[in-house]
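Q: I have 240 residues here and want to know how they pack in 3D. Can you give me a structure?
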Amino acid sequence: MRIALLIACLVLFTADVRAQEVEEIVVTGTLVGSSVPGKHLRRPADNILLRVQIVNDSRDADQREEEIHKTLSAAISAAARNDRIELSSVTDSGFVLPLTKANYQIDLHGGQRPDTSQAYFRAKSAVPDSLDDGEALVLELKRFVAGLKMVGRTEVFVNGDVEVSIVNPSQYRAEAIRLFAEDVQTVTGSLGDDYRVIVNGIDKPIEWARAGSLSVAIYIPYEYTVVPTTINGVTIIPDY
């Protein structure tokens, strides 16, 4: 019994670790206006996502649901034939989840007009390391969406701005701390031995912001105060 319980715990732990390893999240917010520290990691996003609205106005609600889901199923099949495009859904918390034959029957919501049902999904493509401009990727995603086969009275529309995502952002924490240490060393090295740095926030979780059309800034929201070595302490008022 104990061995079976141990094996079950290990299976659950392994599944949780694998889920964390493939965690993908949409990058919301931009570098402009964000309280990003002076030293932060700037890198290409992992994926670019095109937000797509799927709508159906068949009179019968069950028929609307069936036609939308059949259209999504056909779209998943089309994406499977394209090695550069995947379909995804995004949770309210911004997590990106694969849209597959196992979960394509997503929840639908009422549209702007009566007797209308709608939902949203994403057409996603990986950002190549050598790509500086995402326009070609966006055009490819738009062509893919335009070529989807509709079932019944289903329609799809490109909706909203293009999004980017990063996979497992916590993996960059060590690099963010290293950049923080460089920043502190630069400051203390320039000011000399008469000054020291009091740090706040280095223990906070990793954060991120969009830093360009295909770039993201990843950082720890640290702050520090430079004081003379004759001062033994300082009161830091949290900014919240």
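Q: Anything worth noting?
A: DSSP finds four helices and 13 strands in the chain. The two ends are 50 Å apart (CA to CA).
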